Amino acid sequence: MPKKRDSAAELIPDRPTLPRVRDAAKDCHACDLWKRGTQTVFGEGGKSPRMILVGEQPGDAEDLAGHPFVGPAGKLLDRALADAGIDRRSVYVTNVVKHFKWEPRGKRRIHKKPNAAEISACRPWLDTEIALVNPRVVVCLGATAAQALIGPKFKVTTGRGEFVPSALAPFVIATVHPSSILRAPDEETRHEEMKRFTADLRKAARALSSS
Ligand code: SF4
Predict the structure, then answer these.
(1) 17-45 pLDDT per residue, tens
(2) If you measure from the C-alpha of residue 25 to the centroid of ligand 1, how many angstroms do you get, rounded to a whole number?
(3) Between 138 and which of 9, 26, 169, 199 could a Cys-Cys bridge form, CB atoms 3.0 to 4.6 Å apart?
(4) Which of the listed residues 98, 102, 126 should we mutate to test ligand 1's pocket, taking the one with most ligand atoms within 8 A of CB?
(5) pTM summary value
(6) Ligand 1: residue whose CA is nearest its atom 4
(7) What is the pLDDT of residues 122-151, one digit of tens each?
(8) 62: part of which helix (H) or strand (E)?
(9) Residues 6+ apart with CB under 8 A from 161
(10) Are 117 and 152 within 8 A, CB to CB?
């Protein structure tokens, strides 16, 4: 008989703090993604962050570094945050899923979208992060985060940039994932998408300063 796998919820320490929970997540085997990823990539942020940004999953660079949003999409996010007047060091960044899901293509590791079972298995880590950070503003980056946190029918294309009522925080908003901007077909589209992304983040920043 295969050994019963611990759910992520069972691994959360009794008196959780972010460092303790981050430590516990290193040994998570609650879904199969740990077998492919180099390491668990837990969320990170500054001291007492009031805003949390949630993406889908770590990418290739994050998987190797062990830190969220440090690859090309992370650099684009940094630029947009700065343009929106948000100091990256003052926010908490994390992902719905904490291991990199990928498939090989030649020598490259290509991002593969996490499925519903993996998202659900990883959810206790995200819920604990949100509870401990207790943010004023939650920003969902992309469809996976928005559908996990706002609702399965939520569409980023039509619902982006608008605050939605939620028990998660006083202000919850969704926008695109910065990696989608990197995939823009040409420079002009990329420029336009970056402007819209920055405008969505600026709205989140205004909510923060008004509260
Ligand atoms: S993806 Fe999440 S649930 Fe799956 S093994 Fe990694 S930390 Fe655990």
Answers:
(1) 999 999 999 999 999 999 999 999 999 99
(2) 8
(3) 169
(4) 98
(5) 0.96
(6) 31
(7) 999 999 999 999 999 999 999 999 999 999
(8) helix 60-65
(9) 173, 174, 175, 196, 199, 200, 203
(10) no
